[in-house]
Write a structure and sequence with these properties.
about 325 residues; Alpha-D-Glucose-1,6-Bisphosphate, Chain A, domain 4; alpha+beta; 16 strands; elongated; 10 helices; 8-stranded antiparallel β-sheet
């Protein structure tokens, strides 16, 4: 994890985050000053950002919004007040409304980003200056410390070439906290086709099968918000083994993101929320699946079923059966 320290100073009215990376300063600088790079980590898991404007000049402005799995939106804006490439830049950071106007209840904060070389790569220091003790406490209560840590911990995947970072590692499972699990897998194929493979029945039935010997008997995907979906499987020649999942689409942003609920058909109890995100680079797609479970016990029970092994078998089949050149 790159974040080494997050501290607050009630007297100086500051919050300071420090993180180290195995990458040169110039590469770290690009990650923070190019919107296509920022979108991959500026926001904790489950709240990815979208930058709609980015004028990286003194006096210029950036506008972005972060979207939750259920479609809730938090909007922000930066005004660039100082740029000293590649050592530092400063912004006035504001919460804004739908029209981009600052929200009066949340005073603007000055943020300073500093980058310096280390023996093994680089270090980033981000200091936020608040206008009052109340503003500092309000930000902490909103979860800024843990949210910032989780956001910055996504940077390692951004700083490396995507294939160098993930190729050959198979399906990776990370326990983020008691109820959140992040699953990543590099898929050797373009994002548009990976998206279609998750949302077109004839493609789903070719690969979304888990271990060998199973078939997908029902593939009814949800392609619009509010639409229900249903998927069922059974072992070949053994209909008594049939099982399936159902749910509805909470968010659909083709071909980038799809969020659905999931519940085993016929089972009582709460559902999980599955947040699928796809990022393409150099003809390969990084698939990230953020799963929110109702509690730790459910999380551990499902992971213990060998879910990750079944997913890896399916992803390998996806590359072989759907994405491989004819």
């Amino acid at each position: 994890m790159p974040v080494t320290d997050i501290t607050t100073d009630p007297e100086k009215l500051t919050m300071t985050l420090e993180a180290v990376f195995d990458a040169p300063v110039e590469r770290l600088w690009r990650a923070f000053t190019q919107p296509s790079q920022l979108e991959r980590f500026w926001g904790p898991p489950g709240w990815p950002s979208t930058f709609t404007a980015f004028d990286f000049t003194v006096g210029g402005h950036a506008k972005y919004h972060m979207t939750s799995p259920t479609g809730d939106v938090s909007r922000g804006g930066w005004e660039f007040t100082r740029i000293d490439a590649p050592a530092s830049f400063e912004v006035l950071d504001s919460f804004v409304d739908e029209d981009g106007a600052p929200i009066a209840e949340f005073p603007a904060m000055r943020m300073v980003f500093r980058f310096e070389a280390t023996d093994t790569g680089s270090k980033m220091t981000n200091t936020t200056y608040f206008v009052s003790h109340e503003a500092l406490e309000q930000t902490i209560e909103m979860g800024a410390i843990e949210g910032s840590r989780m956001a910055m911990d996504q940077l390692d995947a951004v700083l490396q070439d995507l294939r160098a970072y993930a190729q050959g590692k198979g399906t990776q499972v990370e326990l983020l906290d008691d109820v959140h699990v992040r699953i990543t897998r590099l898929i050797d194929g373009p994002r548009e086709l990976v998206w279609r493979a998750h949302h077109e029945p004839e493609l789903m039935k070719q690969w979304l099968l888990g271990p060998d010997g199973w078939i997908m008997t029902v593939a009814e995907p949800a392609t619009e918000v509010g639409q229900a979906y249903r998927s069922m499987w059974e072992q070949e020649g053994a209909p008594e083994t049939a099982f399936g999942f159902e749910g509805e689409a909470l968010l659909v942003e083709r071909p980038r993101r799809a969020v659905t609920t999931e519940k085993m058909i016929g089972m009582e109890g709460p559902s999980t929320t599955n947040d699928l995100q796809l990022y393409e680079e150099d003809g390969a797609t990084l698939l990230t699946l953020l799963i929110e479970y109702p509690d730790k016990e459910t999380r551990d029970m499902i992971l213990a079923t060998g879910m990750a092994d079944g997913m890896e078998a399916s992803y390998a089949r996806l590359e072989e059966k759907v994405l491989a050149p004819a």
